[in-house]
Each structure stands twice: as structure tokens, then as C-alpha cells.
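input
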Amino acid sequence: MKKPILAMVGLLLVLLFLASYTVDQREKAIEFRFGEILKADIGSGLHFKIPFIETVKKFPTTIQTLNSRSERFLTGEKKYVLVDFFVKWRIDDVSTFYRATGGGRLEAAGSRLEDIMKDGLRNEFSRRTIEEALSEERDAIMRGLEQKSNEAAKQLGIDIIDVRVSRIDFPEQVSESVFERMRSERQRVAQDFRSRGQEEAEKIKAAADRSAMVIMAEAYKEAEQIRGEGDAQAAEIYANAYQIDSEFFAFYRSLDAYRKTLRQDTTMVLKPDSAFLRYFLGAGESPTAKQTAAKKSATTTTIAPDVNVLQTPATPAEPAQFGTTGDTTGMATQ
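output
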């Protein structure tokens, strides 16, 4: 009696197991009857079906990632670039997805989606230069591509969440030409900076030279004024001294001329009536001049009939006690 009951309970449990199914929160399901879609977009929870007549196929609703390999695209400058991109997508309509992919295969959906994205990128890059593709327009390219690709992806039952270009590079043969052009551009900019710097340097140098000339001219002018004032004061002093005692002034100037002329081992050939020997011969009228001539006993004079030969001893000349300027010989002959 117990065995039939247990068998019926077991059969009921098996039938219940075959007639029920669960759908996870991260999934959606389609229910088929003899291969035809009976229900679509079945949400999460516990559901029932007729065993052996109805079948269920589940699809993930989580965000999927499509990573594309490097693809060559032609830019508006007729130059190729290598582009890597990725796409974030998820299934939006499971019935459409099932029909479009031939049974809901994710690999087929990824291949179809990759073709859609490549066509969109090809159109976007063909209307832009390399510089525009690498600039702030890159985000605009992605937004436009996402919008256009979503329209095509709707036919696959797919919703595109995000599209991003992960890398833009140049083929090897193009990279060298691009780098050379960039190098030339940088050299041009550097040369422009150097030229402007040289121009500023020349301006600064010219201004400095002009300032130096002005300063030197002003300094020379001031020096000449000071020198002129000094010469005027010296002339005034000489004139005043001459007016006070002309004879003593002439005597003093003659002594200064002797001091500067008669040095060690000096030989002079003069006429007897030479004015230079005036105070040596005692011809001066001033008593001071006669006393000064007497003190010059170290000097020997030999008078010939026609000329006088004056020699000085081989001793260092007596250092001058007074400083004078001007033509001393001419003053001695006053």
C-alpha cells in the first residue's frame, strides 16, 4: 500500500519538476511550443510549462562587452589609421534577438554588432582628418556613432550602452611620415621663437649701445667742463701770482724748468746769452734768485767764447717740491 503511494508522490514530483522552471533576475526567457514562440520576455520568478510540449530558452540581460581587434580606417586626408574600440551592449528584445541571431547565439550577435560598428566608424573617420579624430571631436564621434549604431542594433534586439575608441594609431609606413611632419612643424615653431628672440636681443643690444653712447657723451661733456673749469682756475691762480711778484714768479718757474730738465748725466749746449741761464749767471734782479743760484754749487758751468756747456753731476735729481703745469721753458724765458 505504501509503495504505490510513494510511487505516485515521486511521479508527481517529477512532473512538477518538468513542468516548472525559474528565471534569474539577470535573465529573460522565451517559451516555445513545438518550436514556435509562445511567450517572450519572461521575467524573473517561478514559471510553469507543459512538459515535453513546451520548452524554455534563457538569455542573459547583463551588460556584454565586445572588444574589437585593430581595424584600418581611411580618414578624410586619405590616410589610414588603426583603431581599437569596444562596445557595451545588452539584450533588449529577446524574441527579436532570437530571430536575428539564428537561435540566440551571443557569438553571432557579437559578429553582427562588430560589423555595424565598423561601418559607423568608417563613415565617421572618412569625414574627419587625423587631427580632428584625435582632438575634442573624438567624443562627438563616439556620441554620433552610438546614436546611429543603436538604430541598426534595434533590428538585432540589442541596446548599445556605450561605445569607446581605446586606441588610434598609424600604420608603420604612415607613422614615419606623420612624425616627420610633426618634427618639421616643431622645428618651424622653434625657429620662429628663435627668430623673435634674436630680434628682441638685437633691440635690447641696440638700446644698450645707444644708452652707453649717451652716458659716455654726457660723461665726456661733464669731464671737459670740469677740466675747463680747472684750467680756468689754474690760469687765474697763475695770473694772480704773476701780478703779485712777477720776478719771483719767473724765478720759481725757472727753477721748476731746471728741476725737470737738468737730470742725472744731462749735457746741454747753450749760448752765453741764453735766457735759460739767466739765474745761473746771476742776471736776475731778485735777491732770492741770486741766493738760489749760489746754492746750486753742485752744478758746474764752463763758458766758451761762443757757447756754454752745462753739465750736471751723476746724482739723482732733487725731487720737485712744487708741481706746475704748462710750458715751463716758455715761462722761464719771460
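quick obs: The mean pLDDT is 76.
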